[in-house]
């Protein structure tokens, strides 16, 4: 059996399934219940305080649990519910629900704390989760860090839940401890003690065939080695030829933003706003968007680039009732669609303009721009939004405006487009698809996905050169930006910013450090036969990485 | 006579779980001093973690602190230091 989940903490687990965190019922009422409650509470506080050898992050989570347990308001709620006739278990449940309601009314981050509080109520009544020796993949419909209070971290092979989130404490804790954690799995289908694996793309496979198991075992060993080493390469400022190189994150939601911020990424090179729209059956309101943009921008010190809706092509929004197109990748998509659905576009622009007033690190970016006239039209809609907002006495600011370069004609014509914008970001997935005339959803032509092809590199080089001649910066937010093999080439070409999934950043950081100590000459002028040079550089890097030993201070030998 | 002072939250995530837990832990030392936090029309007990986080005060939020009791001055000073210190939140 194979179940696909959502990854909260990436990795590979191999072990037996085990359910933890059972409910226990206390039927005491009235003053007897109050007595039992204070004993349970004290027991749990003692247990938390006696937990040793915990990391700084775990300690912070435990401080929060203690703060809730010792909060006079928690006791008030318990008493109130007991007086209403609840038994102790009912009172604890009702009280935690009330606390959750109170806290959920605020931002998304606080909302995620609700699972912690719900689990706190359950663990309060049943703190014992002792397990015999052995490594397990623990599961239940919901779990929180507190469920693992009495389990040695080294015995936790993986975690599976039905309900979850990338920014729950459990997710943060799992990432800090390199414990794979996948949620959105139907846990009612699981039984204890079955041999299972979690794959790095978020699948739970029960009773996997021997060949898959062996392959995963090997992958897991290599992964652990790399993770151990990558830890020493975070948080560094990168320079190349005396120029600062920006490494930013691609995010698709506020949750992703929290994950990136936790990984100490300084900024966002691409906030794919359409993901939030795709997740709902109706468009997001201006207010909803405004809050999300503001909360996201506040997480970072550097620029957060909000890309306006990139719908069409392979991404559809049902409520727009778009006509079926014969050739959707060449049809109404990206900015073309926004210009067609002005009302939807205006709501998003208004939200961004308002958020930009509060957060000076916001930038705006239009996708799929082909000709200058499209930028002019988009800007005139921004002017309309400004007038409306002034009339409504709402604060706004127009942030810096950039465009994605994904269309070959736009790349060739960059000198014409640059005057209208503050920066450019190269979207390589589409740029390669259009340049090579290869449908990126068709496996049979995937051999034509060649980022290093002379034609593609010529286009990229032109965009970079034009931006620099005009004293503007240029980034890249497509997959090519995190494919390590191309990194030295893009550095040499002069790219200023690389934006990628935040999980990839430590690898690029490591490679950058390596490249600074090694010669990367002879790459330019580019010729696709030189891919061999890039391949050799990367191969040498992996060998170097295996042989070196690292300490917190850097390289030992 | 109660003492009150306005503060702007400087740390990235405002009064979220970790700063609030920190704050409550420190403010519990001022046993006989009443400490209230006001924001957006709500006034809550500064020694209650649940109430503090329920304010939903984010970065740049302007909050008012009202203290009353024997250690008023000290309490205000401590809160001011914690806010200016961004609750010890790392920010680079």
TrEMBL record, chain B:
SUPFAM superfamilies: HPr-like
Principal location: cytoplasm
Pfam entry (one): PTS-HPr
Keyword Cytoplasm (UniProt): yes
Cell location: Cytoplasm
One Gene Ontology term from the biological process aspect of the record: phosphoenolpyruvate-dependent sugar phosphotransferase system
Family matches, as InterPro entries: HPr, HPr-like, HPr-like_sf, PTS_HPr_His_P_site
Lineage: superkingdom: Bacteria
Domain HPr: 2-90
Name assigned to this protein: HPr family phosphocarrier protein
